[in-house]
Amino acid sequence: MKLLEKFYKIFLSENTKRQMERTILYIALISFFIHLTLIYLSEFDVVQLFSDSELIRNPISAIYTPFSFILVYEVYLLIYYLPKSFTTYITKQYEIITLIVIRKLFKDLSAIELTAKWFEIRGDLQFTYDILASLILFYLIFQFQKQGKRKRNKQDKIEVRVERFIKRKKIIATILVPLFFILAVLTLINWLSTVSLSSGQLPSFDSINNLFFDEFFTVLILVDVVLLLLSFFYTDEFHKIIRNSGFIVSTILIRLSFGVSGLISTILIVVAVLFGLLIVLIHNQYEKNTMLHNERN
User: Fold this and answer.
1) Does any domain span residue 297?
2) 202 within domain boundaries
3) Higher pLDDT residue, 66 or 203?
4) End-to-end CA distance of the chain
5) How many domains is the chain built from?
6) Residue 4 half-sphere exposure, CB side, CA atoms within 13 Å?
7) How far is 284 from 146, CA to CA, in rounded Å?
8) What does the alpha-carbon distance between residue 41 and residue 245 come to, in Å, rounded to a whole number?
9) Alpha-carbon gap, residue 197 to 191, rounded angstroms
10) In the predicted model, is pLDDT for residue 276 greater than 90?
């Protein structure tokens, strides 16, 4: 147990978070200029590497690469906030999937066709779906955070059993850091082997966009289930069990969105976040009514 606490301080301390943030920002900046350089080298026929890829055709698509590293930092923040705030942990899941949608927008922008037949062109339609979805998701996440803060402000003191639950969440978070690092490395190795087998040509954009994150959300589903089971040791309140179960359903819907493309994928993502918001709204109302009932009695 002491060893896990030591690793927790190494992996998830405030100092580590700041160092991680600084490192990721530098990597994101460098990767942006490397991607931009590859685009211009390809445009002037200096190199032909990945020249057929959608990500090498327009300078706007170079923004896709730094966004990928920002998403890596968001994954770290998700693990960082897991022991601290369950609502923030779920919010980070929603922020990650929203950033994935926005990242895809930069690719869509680079291939957009400004014609009178906007609604007949598949790429333009997808851009329309994604830009509307990003606005809706932004608003839903704002409301979700607002409801989560209302709940946290009412918790003036932490009970001993809650402290025990937090310690267990710290153990899970400590295990997740190396687990996701190994998963990211394995994903990168598999991707590089795929590129080498395809004679230096990048895989389809959908497979690149889903890279790592389909496995990431699969692991998150398992983590959410473990958290739900652990919560039974500390509470038997119906509304809290339903809230935690609802968040699992929300994560599953996000994971399912990686298995499809186009409008269906976008709808699944929006429905997942909307479902999470409705769950927390009903949970807060249920808790408010319970408190009023207890005060009267």
Assistant:
1) no
2) yes
3) 66
4) 43
5) 1
6) 11
7) 11
8) 51
9) 10
10) yes
Residue 289: predicted pLDDT: 85
| Residue 295 belongs to a domain | no
Structure tokens at 25: 């920002």
- DSSP letter, residue 201: -
Q: What distances in angstroms separate CA 90 from CA 80, 198, 215, 250, one per listed residue?
A: 12, 38, 17, 9
What is the pTM (predicted TM-score) of this model?
A: 0.86
Neighbours of 230 (CB within 10 A): 15
Residue-wise pLDDT for 21-51, tens only, equals 999 999 999 999 998 898 888 877 776 666 5
pLDDT digits (tens, 9 = 90+) for 111-135: 677 777 767 777 778 888 889 999 9
Q: Is 284 within a domain?
A: yes
- pLDDT band at 157; cut points 50, 70, 90: very low
Residue type, 48: Q
Contact present, 134 and 95 (Cβ < 8 Å):
no
Is the sign of the CA dihedral 258, 259, 260, 265 positive or negative? negative
Q: Domain range for residue 141?
A: 2-289
Distance CA 277, CA 216 (A): 22
Question: What is d(CA 210, CA 216) in angstroms, rounded to the nearest whole number?
Answer: 10
Query: Distance from CA of residue 4 to its chain's centroid?
Result: 25
Angle, helix 2-12 to helix 14-43, in steps of 10 degrees: 50
User: Any idea how long the chain is?
Assistant: 297
- The position carrying tokens 């598949």 is 122
